[in-house]
Amino acid sequence: MTRKENKKEKKGQRTAVGMRMKIFAYLAVFSAVILAVIWIFQSVLLEDIYRYSVRRQTMRTARIICEADDTADDFERMVYDIASQYGQCISVYSVSDMRAAEMVSAHIQSVCVIHSAMLNEALLGSLYSNAENGRYIETMDSVSRSEGSVVCSERAARDGYEILCVVNCDIQPVDATVSTLQLELIFITVILIAVSALTSFFIARRITRPVAAMNEEAKKLAHGNYDVNFTGGEYLETLQLAGTLNFATSELSKLDTMQKELIANISHDLRTPLTMIAGYSEVMRDIPGEMSRENMQIIIDETHRLSSLVSDMLDLSRLSGGKRELKLTLFSLTECIAETASRFEHLRGVDGYSIKFIPEGDIYVFADETLILQVLYNLISNAVNYTGEDKTVTVTAHAENGVCRVSVTDTGEGIPAEKLPLIWDRYYRAGDYHKRGIVGTGLGLSIAKNALVLHDAPFGVTSTLGEGSTFWFELKTSEPPEGSPDDSGSI
Ligand code: ADP
């Protein structure tokens, strides 16, 4: 992190609001919204809602009574029950030939329009005629109260007569209720603020505790201490974060160990040829008789070893660092193998080595030729180095079902089964080959593996102790390019 970024982050930390404060603010806003809604409904809209509910209930009562059987024995009882349940005054009339006869009269309210106007015939007549279409509802001024009174009349036809149901409900003043509710709201507000503060305090403490603990561990990690353990508390998100950090820690620790090993290996591998070169050069400078061809050859060999080590390292870092992009081309794998084999034969043939390759037709693949060449080179080079007394290496390429399997077989000592998975690791060397004079860097198979992984190509090794090893890899075959001599059918 640059100094500028560091400064910016520190400034951000200073201006950042703590989690406790944030949660409190959210809860306070939430409570305020709830209080506002309650206040609007209880203070501003209370009267309207109350009036609406009285009208609704008055109409419902009239409907229930008109739908009831007025000849039933319990009809009167039912009317009284409804009247007392809803605090309404109800009068039911039977009307025939424009004459109304009272059937039931439930007088519940002390002051009531229909009972105080007691059969004010004009009122009854207007309620009857207004309910011509079934129902009529009206809010009248009450005699004693300014709030008024809801009167609803409903007519229902019966056999030979009509039922007229008149329901009256007084509208009570709501001012007292509103002021009571407002007082209640003040209490509720105070309680909600206290609850919000306490809740935010506890929530923040529970959430921040694991985060703060992880922060402490992360600080240790930042100072290179990998002996840390992130515990995530009880929340899924913090648990996931802890898991990720623990994973990152173990990966960092592995990387650190690998880096240290790598540096140790590199310095060791570089130092050996350098010491040889320096030693032989000094001897040749100081002792004239030592200025021999053999000594010069040793210096040349060590220089080659040094250069191959450096180029292997570069190759590997390019491949495993993901910087190398595949340059796919269509080429003849058979030709590629044949060339590599003959080059080795040419180079090592003088020492009696024989690299056998019997081609099975011309197999074409769509791959990165340079990388595949390198894989072949590394596998054949290993096979030559580790093959047995007969100094023979066999290379085969067999295509079937659109896949070509290339195998490189030697007759050497083989590799112990427990070491097989390790040989692909960088700098891994299975035996003490310095004794046999085998020049190796421990990077060849790692380079081959990275190249094949880039191609998404399967690869592996089978080995029998005392009999030899077979290293193999598979590539998808392609049709030969048009016009090539093999463009005659499938392989
Ligand atoms: P090196 O430069 O040591 O050959 P490699 O990465 O190519 O490095 O191989 C890693 C190790 O795998 C070798 O040191 C050797 O122990 C083992 N190995 C590779 N190829 C063979 C083989 N054909 N036969 C036996 N052992 C092998």
Distance between the termini: 57 Å
Tertiary shape: elongated
Number of helices: 12
Task: List unreliable stretches of 5+ residues.
Answer: none
Helix content: 40-55%
Oligomer: single chain
Radius of gyration: 49 Å
| Estimated share of beta-strand residues | 15-25%
Q: Give a short account of the largest sheet.
A: 7 strands, mixed
Instruction: List each distinct ligand once.
Output: adenosine-5'-diphosphate
Roughly what is the average pLDDT, rounded to an integer?
A: 83
Which series of helices and strands comes N to C?
HHHHEEHHEEEHHHEHEEHEEHEE
Kindly name the structural category. alpha+beta
Question: How many strand segments?
Answer: 12
Can you describe this structure?
This protein has 491 residues and is of the alpha+beta class. Helices cover 53% and strands 18% of the residues. It is built from 12 helices and 12 strands. Strands 6, 7, 8, 9, 10, 11 and 12 form a 7-stranded mixed beta sheet that branches. A 5-stranded antiparallel beta sheet has the order 2-1-5-4-3, with helices on both faces. A hairpin with a 2-residue loop joins β9 and β10 (403-410). α2 runs antiparallel to α7 (175-222), α8 (236-286) packs antiparallel against α9 (293-320) and α10 (333-348) packs parallel to α11. The chain starts with a helix and ends in a 13-residue tail after the last strand. Residues 378, 382-383, 386, 410, 412, 415, 423, 428-431, 440-446, 469 line the site of adenosine-5'-diphosphate (ADP).
